[in-house]
Amino acid sequence: MAETAESEERVEVVEDHRRRAPATLGFAVVTVSDSRTAETDTGGHAAAERIETAGHRVAARLLVRDEAAAIRAAVEELLAAPGVDVLVLTGGTGVSPRDVTVEAVSPLFEKPLPGFGELFRMLSHRQVGSAAMLSRAAAGVAAGRAIFLLPGSPKGVVLALDELILPEAGHLVSQARRGRGGAAVGP
After folding, report:
1. Over the stretch 63-94, which tens digit does the pLDDT of each residue have?
2. Of the four, 20, 66, 89, 138, which is 20 to 30 A from 35 by CA?
3. pLDDT per residue over 104-154, tens digit each?
4. Which residues contact 180 (CB under 8 A, 6 or more apart)?
């Protein structure tokens, strides 16, 4: 009985945090690719559509080459930009030699979120089977902002946004900003 009461109390605390979290966030969508253009960026288009459908803003949209220095510079610029609460990077999370998004961005994480990658790969396994282990999807917090590193596949982007990112983004950002001097969230 006591175990059930404790479990219900933990659920209520999480739900209370979600209720107090901002309803609207500013997202930056960054596509990492040597071959995509603004017109052929299906992963970035899928991300922007899902974000806006969920009632959030796309505050920035970038296309960056598969080069570690360019990726890191774009992320650092967005971390300093007002109105950006969440960064979603698509592409460069696989295992080919050109996939350097994780190496470029993860050193910026003040707090890595290993559970994101674990959950993403578990959910991906349902769609693509054992190929899910090839994904190095990752997430972390830096400068009071959430950063998600996703595959470039539109199906992977939609899965991550719908199942993991959008349901928790407000809660995550509000927790990441606790004690940071009241950093603004949202517009």
Report:
1. 999 999 999 999 999 999 999 999 999 999 99
2. 138
3. 999 999 999 999 999 999 999 999 999 999 999 999 999 999 999 999 999
4. 144
Contact by Cβ (8 Å): 22, 186: yes
83 burial (CB, 10 Å; 0-12 / 13-18 / 19+) is middle
Which fold, 25-176? Molybdenum Cofactor Biosythetic Enzyme; Chain A (3.40.980)
Query: In angstroms, rounded to a whole number, what is the distance separating the alpha carbons of residues 47 and 30?
Result: 10
Alpha helices in 42-93 (DSSP H): 42-53, 68-80
Q: Break the chain into its structural domains and give their ranges.
A: 25-176
Number of helical (H) and strand (E) elements in the chain, helices listed first: 7, 6
Instruction: Tell me how far apart the alpha carbons of residues 133 and 32 are, in angstroms, rounded to a whole number.
Output: 20
Specify the pTM.
Answer: 0.88
Q: Is 88 helix (H, G, I), strand (E, B) or coil?
A: strand
- pLDDT at position 186, please? 47
